[in-house]
């Protein structure tokens, strides 16, 4: 029988938004290692947050590089 923890939550009923935001925060700080064990919902949500932050950053970098390009062609 699964015992209830405080606030009436069970072991895996944690609000997953916390893990998602922690993944985003870890990406911004440059941490690659997840604080959660593999093959858990918390790990998957952390990974989803990390990947989301990576893709948002990649989109922002590509837009910045595209705007930086001038109309001149160098090299010839």
Report on the structure:
This protein has 76 residues and is an all-alpha fold. It has one domain. Helices cover 55% and strands 0% of the residues. It has 2 helices and no strands. The chain is elongated. The mean pLDDT is 81.
Jot down its keywords.
mainly alpha; single chain
- The average pLDDT score comes to 81
> What would you call the shape?
elongated
Which sheet architecture does the biggest sheet show? none
Order of helices and strands: HH
The number of distinct helices, counting runs of at least 4 residues, comes to 2
Question: How big a fraction of the residues is strand?
Answer: under 5%
Overall number of strands? 0
Share of helix, binned: 55-70%
User: What is the domain tally?
Assistant: 1
**C-alpha Rg, in Å?**
20 Å
Identify low-pLDDT runs: none
User: Termini distance?
Assistant: 75 Å
Quickly give the structural class.
mainly alpha
Write the layout of secondary structure elements.
Elements: H1 16-29, H2 41-68
Helix pairs in contact: 1-2
Question: How do you describe this structure in short?
Answer:
The protein has 76 residues and is mostly helical. The chain is 55% helix and 0% strand.
